[in-house]
Amino acid sequence: MRKVNQDRIEETIRMKGPLSRPDMARETGLSLVTVNRSVEALLSEDKIKKAGLEDSNNSGRRPMLFQINDKLYNYLFAYIYLDRCRIQLSDHRGGTVMQDDLAIGEYVNGGFVDILMDRFEQVIEKYKEAPYRGIFIGVPGVVHEGVIESIPLVPELEGLNLRDRLSKHFNLDVHLENDVNLATFGYYHEHDPDAWGTRTFLFLNHGVRMGTRIRGRIYGGSSSFSGEIGAILFPCDTNTSYEERIYRLSQKAKTDAKARDAMVNSITELLIIILSTVNPVEIVLHHDLLDSTDLIAMREALAERVGERHAPRLKLFTGAFQDIGMKGMVQVALSLHQDESLAITRML
After folding, report:
1. Crossing angle for the helix pair 162-170 and 112-126, nearest 10 degrees?
2. Would you say 184 and 193 are in contact if contact means Cβ atoms under 8 Å apart?
3. CATH top-level class for 74-182?
4. In CATH terms, are 2-68 and 193-321 the same topology?
């Protein structure tokens, strides 16, 4: 219970600081004795620091204010998207210290891991005032126990235990996760953090992949393959997957109205599969060619097929996929620091 109270005080200071001890007691409902004990523990661990005395018009003694220790440690992130890898350094509050994009197209045949490690070393050397808490990497592939699979965009990473390699080299904790899972976590943390029902994020640009959020956690399945829905074969052509069909139609849909209609119909059929297996209350779709009219048509088709009561809400995400994915990764890092259960949960 003492650790729970301490974490609660730390999070309150993080969100609303600087705060005095009486402020913390009012915000959390904890007794002043409990607050004092937690503050002393947080000070001893350098998680918070004194921020000066509170401004007051009263002639009495002014209380001391406390805030999060900004220079306590850093997080290092890498997020791979198409032919680029975004490198980001964040402080323990999730604030961005630096951000840079690394072109990986020229390393498609090898050398990417070496250049990534070199870039990490440069960042660590330049920003060495604070210690590093860990390295977090988002990849467009399946991640299971540190090994990356099904990642055609960066063949060098196929079958590689990148977690162990980086952990041994940098002597830091290394966390790898699927990019769509991170984007799903980032989207709902930003748009609907308190949502409890099952929700799905469907990525349809440059592939077909899905992230599912159940009771506030991302569902990974027994081997982290959950969400690779593009691998399902299209029923009218057993040699073509949904991913291949939707991608091919998307290329034609830019100039061909019939191809666009076929693309929307194929996505609708995919939504039926998601609805029948996951039964979410909401599906967020990310595709550059879709618009609100398409969502209305797909929602009507779903309601006609399965009934209005079972048809989920449909929303369109039009932001930058790599941005929301990076936000999700930062939030995963912060949740791990707070000693909460993992934000990305492997549920059997």
Report:
1. 30
2. no
3. alpha beta
4. no
Cβ neighbour number for residue 291 with a 10 Å cutoff = 10
**Residue 345 in this model has a pLDDT that exceeds 50:** no
| Cβ–Cβ < 8 Å for 73, 133 | yes
Q: Which CATH architecture has domain 2-68?
A: Orthogonal Bundle (1.10)
Element (H, E) at 189: helix 179-191
CB 177 within 8 A of CB 186: no
Distance CA 287, CA 279 (A): 21
Report the SS3 class of residue 134: strand
Instruction: Kindly list the distances between the CA atom of residue 95 and the CA atoms of 70, 89, 136, 201, 261, in Å, as whole numbers in the listed order.
Output: 9, 8, 15, 25, 43
Specify the DSSP element, H or E, that contains 345.
Answer: strand 344-345
The domain spans of the chain are: 2-68, 74-182, 193-321
Contact 20/54 with Cβ under 8 angstroms? yes
Of residues 342 and 145, the one with the higher pLDDT is: 145
Indicate whether this model's pTM tops 0.85.
no
pLDDT digits (tens, 9 = 90+) for 191-249: 988 888 899 999 998 889 999 999 888 898 888 888 999 889 888 767 899 999 999 99
CB distance 113 to 128 below 8 Å: no
Tens of pLDDT, residues 130-152: 889 899 999 999 999 999 999 98
Neighbouring residues of 127: CB distance < 8 A, sequence distance ≥ 6: 74, 89, 97, 98
Which residues neighbour 43 within 8 Å (Cβ) at sequence distance 6 or greater? 49, 50, 66
By the 10 Å C-beta count (0-12 exposed, 13-18 middle, 19+ buried), 295 is classed as middle
Long-range contacts of 155-163 (CB under 8 A, 24+ apart): 155/108, 155/109, 156/107, 156/108, 156/109, 156/110, 156/111, 156/112, 156/113, 157/112, 157/113, 160/113, 162/113, 162/137
CATH 3.30.420.40 fits 193-321, yes or no: yes
Do 68 and 337 touch, CB atoms closer than 8 A? Answer: no
